[in-house]
Amino acid sequence: MAGRDLRALFSTNDRSVEAGEAFTNRHMQWELVAAALSEHLRHTAGPAFNVEDLEAPRDNVMVFHGVGGIGKSTLSRKLEAALTGADHRPAQWGEPTWAGERILPVRIDLSRSAGTDFEQLVLTIRAALSTLGRPLPAFDLALRRYWEQQHPGESLEEYLRRGGLVGRFGKAMPQQMQAAMADVAQALLLPGSIGSAVGQVTGSLVRALRERRQTVRALARCARLADLLEAEPDLDSLSFYPHLLAWELAQLPADKRVTPVILLDTFEDVGDRTHRDLERLIQRVAWLMPNAYFIVTGRSRLQWADPALQGQLDYTGPTAWPGLAGTAIAVPAARTPGTTVGGRGRQVLVGDFSPEDCDDYLARRLSRDGQPLINAAIRQTITDRSHGLPLYLDLSVLRFLEIRRTREPAPVDFDHDFGALIARTLSDLTHDERHVLRSISLLDAFDLTLATVAAGLAHEAPAQRLIERPFIREQPFGLWPYHLHGLIRSTIRSADDATDDRWTERDWQQAAGRALAALGTQWTASEATGRDRMLLVGCLRQGLPLARDFRLDLGWLADAAWSYVSDSVWEPLAPPVRSGADGGMATAADALVELLAALARRQHEHRSITASRLAAVARTGLLPADLHEMAVYYLAKAQRDLGDSAGSRRGMQLVADGGGRLAPAARRGLAHLARLAGDFPTAHDVAQTLGWEGRQHRVEGDVYWPHGDMNRAATAYATARDQAEQHNIAGERATSQAQRAFVLAFTDPEAADDELHLAHQLLNGLDLRATTLTTKIAALVRDAGALSSLDAARLLRADITEAGVTAAQAALELALCFHHAVQDDHAKISAAISRLRDLTRGGDYAYYVDIAQFMAAMPLNRASTAQWLDSEQQTRSRWRSLVTARQTYLDARH
After folding, report:
1. Nearest-5° Cα angle at 553, 549 to 556
2. Which of 57, 458, 745, 863 is the most buried (most CB within 10 A)?
3. Edge-to-edge, what's the strand order for the sheet holding 366-368?
4. What is the C-alpha to C-alpha distance for residues 782 and 13, in angstroms, rounded to an integer?
5. What confidence score (pLDDT) does residue 342 get?
6. DSSP for 16-52?
7. Rounded to whole angstroms, how far apart are CA atoms 600 and 596?
8. Whole-structure pTM over 0.85, yes or no?
């Protein structure tokens, strides 16, 4: 515990509740501070270090930046306490390496509520150094002169008391300043009556310094003291006086030496990127005190290493501030084991809490009799919603206490967004930046162009400034490199926005339209220059929810949907929330989202689920005619897989008669249905009319292999694969290759092994469940006759049953029939034939029973319904030859 949480304490009448200010471990940040400070101490102790060198690069600043509410101020306070001494350091934090060195932490709150100005900042640093117990005459004289000029008649001691500095550091500072004045007056042999007259003392001192008198030889070593005492004592001059502090610290004897660590918190309130007056003064302090170390906490990284700021600040560029240049360090979660941090970077992004840290925070924040007041289920809900943001945890604790006044809180109470997060996020943004922020909250990820267009701005500058904020996360290798912090995004989208420039529903609608159009522009441009599958899927994943949630017209989404299905790759798309008989579909966008989601999920769901979803889409009638035919066509495919040939034939005929984009595919579907029924002449004749669009050669291969004509089928599949490669259709290429491996597995196991290897390569990155099953069946056929166990077949049967693909079930049983026939095991082949007969009782694939009997040289136990391309006897002979050839092959191997 770091103290009492007064807000929580005053939110309940229950005095048994212990409200503690919980601090969750940030040991990675402490390790960075300890390493940087150790390096700083070695540098300042080296013989080459010169506190008066005003040209050497500075590496005495470390920055912790992050989103509002991430815990930066808490971290700053904890660092101050840890640097004070071991008694105040959290147990999880390691021992520092500067044993014997004296560290003096000085924390200064720069927030607007604290009211800290530059004058008070300088006085705070000097007041902290008063604990050294000795005057700092060079600085004290300059400060006293400034005070008399800027605050005539005002007591410095009274000012320090009102500002709280006397309470923090005691009353020694004014006394030390007076002693410094007296010492200098005595050294200059000035009358005691004028020892307190600042003007006369400093005037005499300047003359003595210019004349290099022995009486002031100690101060004469400060080369720039005279210049500073002669300068007009205004605020600008005051900002150079810290040089005198640094010089005085360098004069201390070794046993008295101290290193100030100045912690500047809430740096975002110093100013903005246009008004840098106060920032310039503070930067001057950091530059002129190279023997002090500065730890800055704020929402944004310091830009001091940016050469473009030359003229706005005194010291800029990567040469001046090497540690502030480059990419910020992203500190990993505190509980990640075995993680080390280091490097020269001094800009550190304060990361979100890990889930474990969130739970630990909530468990320790409120307690009774040493036990967590917030139960585990509620802690889990809050943790899941928080995205690791401490402010959300803090607000949830107060909500817990508020609900507890009237009833016992439940997990559902914390599925909640807090408007306060919006105010914290927007507080230091310009109007245009806030506009861009709301616009990008509609997007999962974005780039500079997408953010600008979505915001409807004519210039990129606001978006450029916004992406530098810590709540914008970067993934350099992503399709779009930037994304908004998850909790901030969800809050802006869903919480009540009480800000002055909040958006109306119409504003959100227009922004969604701009974002959808911007995504379409990017995809259309890629289509013109060459297909980009990753961009297509990315645009669909972002565009579909926009169109659905804001009831937008489909526009480019219709063409993108056709591109998506054309490759038969089936990357997952975000499914919609469905309810009701028609899945809650009310617009064309609703229906399109459900259509594409069902097509993508069909590789992972039973075909009956796919058929049900597609039937619901088709019933709505919401889609334009061509997309409606897409739903009907894929519904017909699912029905065919389920064995509903009559329903499949109706759908295929409807699409074929429509003459649309899927008409060739529908005619192919009709050819498949004819083949399933054993009408091979019809299937073969239709195949000749299909051309590439109807996948003619694959259909021919599907007709040839049931006749045992494996070489002819393999040639047809190879041609289909090559054509798919020429047209860059990855799914068709993989499917044709898998079928080629399947048929060659009957004739040449060694060649089939190579073909299967190629099929697996072509399937890499694709999501084709039925094709994957084909490769597994092909592997069984390749090993037929030599299988020592049928465990693989049993597992494969379970996978096929889960998928609900009738064709694969029948093909698996046929493969087992081939294996048993090669082994000449009549009992097992009879059992397999019985299973095949049960599977094909509806009429589809009934000729598989004939083929199994051909393999085993068994007579048909009933008349065949198949219409073969040639005679039944020729087909029988080819299949029996395949079995005997395999037997010969196996005998030769043994």
Report:
1. 110
2. 745
3. 18-19, 366-368, 371-372
4. 77
5. 41
6. T-EEB------HHHHHHHHHHHHHHHHHHHSTT--TT
7. 6
8. no
